[in-house]
Amino acid sequence: NAGVTQTPKFQVLKTGQSMTLQCAQDMNHEYMSWYRQDPGMGLRLIHYSVGAGITDQGEVPNGYNVSRSTTEDFPLRLLSAAPSQTSVYFCASRTTGAGNTIYFGEGSWLTVV
Amino acid sequence: DQQVKQNSPSLSVQEGRISILNCDYTNSMFDYFLWYKKYPAEGPTFLISISSIKDKNEDGRFTVFLNKSAKHLSLHIVPSQPGDSAVYFCAASTGTASKLTFGTGTRLQVTL
Predict the structure, then answer these.
(1) pLDDT averaged over chain A?
(2) Best mutation site among B98, B99, B106, B107 for testing chain A: the one with the most A CBs within 10 Å?
């Protein structure tokens, strides 16, 4: 996928643990976002950012924090992991202008036990 | 409230035939629509898009049709190839594509 890198690809957490999913893009895109994909639910927006220093909530933000200190990076933090956060997480980015394509990373598989 | 619906969870088509994937939406403010293709263990990849000012957009074997009055769009793949076997997501946005609303996906299997 075009220039969006996510780490780690797989992670198992215990309930109550915290962790950060990393996302970096090298395309100088202003917009970055995080989605989660659950069976039968499609992809749902967690948080997004329209530029460095600016973030906003998406459809399912509870239990997650984000920050955007640089254009390139957009980490997603799970403050106290819960089994309901077991999911596949996708980071995405795009440049400005309505209608531009969103590029997705390859995904991070998270299991909370 | 599912604003973007893909009512067919799966579709099987023979190689060489046409695949038609459907998508319905309820939010009349949506003005940009995209189709993404997803293979297992990979991120979604952009396939084709259409603005609400158009009713058709074509790119090679892929054509998307938009019927605004019916709040319906469809993706046609002609001819279908085995490599097209994947999950296809329909997505919609209002104004900017930074906040996409996705459907639940349709798994397409192209058989030999």
Answers:
(1) 92
(2) B98
